[in-house]
Specification:
The protein is of the alpha+beta class. The protein is about 30% helix and about 35% strand.
């Protein structure tokens, strides 16, 4: 009976350890990335700040600002003004679902994690084996994908379009008789069809997103500088007021001393006469 009891306890312990390990692995698989910086952005309705963890299923909304999300081993996405996105993760890849706005994608060559951006029926992935930097921008009637470094692959409708460094492609939505769904639910033409139009790279498109974040930070710094200047001006004003009050107090003291001189005349100079002061 004793051996059976020990065996049962060992089995129970092994089962608990197995469940804990599975739980840890499952929890780890839900983590999409972390926030490197954000201005005027929210996650699930809460203000987004640097250090926040992004989990699968989280919803991101950027108003007049930017949000930088780190993923994998150095990969990042920078979501620009008026962007709306959600996130997902499975065992092999991290996915961002963009339903509105624009995003800059950076994927270093050494990062082996699969990074995917989904917009409607299209998937956008960085090329493997080399550093990739790209820009994806949505409007009401087009989707523009730009590769400024490396290679971007756009998959959809069973076709693949490769966008090399220095090229941009415009994807035109398909016309549907059913009411168009909002944002990322739009259906676009696939690679190689007449629905894809090659266009010139818009100069500084990706840089504009990064510059927007820098400008926002600069604006915050300017606000802080203005506040400091206002505080300094207030301190100067207070100092001037204190000086004026001291001068008035001194004048009052002289006047009081001279008045006492007249009431109690005697020695010269009078003890009531302030030092250095001349009474009439």
């Amino acid at each position: 009976m004793g051996k059976q009891g020990v065996s049962a306890r060992v089995s129970l312990l092994l089962l608990i350890l197995g469940l804990l390990a599975a739980g840890s692995a499952f929890a780890g698989s839900l983590i999409v990335g972390s926030v490197a910086g954000a201005t005027n952005a929210s996650l699930g309705g809460q203000a987004l700040v640097a250090g926040n963890t992004i989990f699968s299923g989280d919803n991101l909304r950027v108003s007049d600002g930017s949000a930088v999300v780190m993923m994998g081993s150095g990969s990042r996405m920078v979501f620009g003004k008026d962007s709306v996105a959600s996130f997902g993760r499975n065992a092999s890849e991290v996915t961002a679902f963009l339903s509105k706005g624009n995003v800059s994608v950076y994927h270093p060559a050494e990062d082996q994690a699969l990074l995917r951006l989904r917009i409607g029926n299209l998937s956008i992935l960085p090329g493997k084996g080399f550093k990739t930097l790209g820009e994806v921008a949505m409007t009401t009637d087009t989707l523009i994908v730009t590769a400024t470094e490396g290679l971007l692959r756009v998959e959809g409708n069973g076709k693949t379009t490769e966008i090399p460094k220095g090229r941009s492609a415009k994807f035109i939505p398909k016309v549907s008789r059913s009411p168009q769904q909002a944002g990322g639910a739009q259906t676009y033409g696939g690679g190689g069809s007449s629905a894809v139009m090659w266009i010139a790279v818009a100069a500084g498109a990706t840089a504009a997103i990064l510059a927007g974040l820098a400008m926002s930070r600069a604006s915050d710094a300017k606000d802080a500088s203005n506040a400091a200047t206002a505080a300094a001006n207030k301190a100067d004003s207070d100092a001037l007021a204190a000086g004026a009050a001291a001068t008035t107090a001194n004048q009052n003291s002289i006047a009081a001393g001279c008045a006492l001189n007249q009431l109690f005349p005697g020695s010269n100079p009078s003890p009531f006469q302030p030092v250095g002061a001349t009474c009439p």
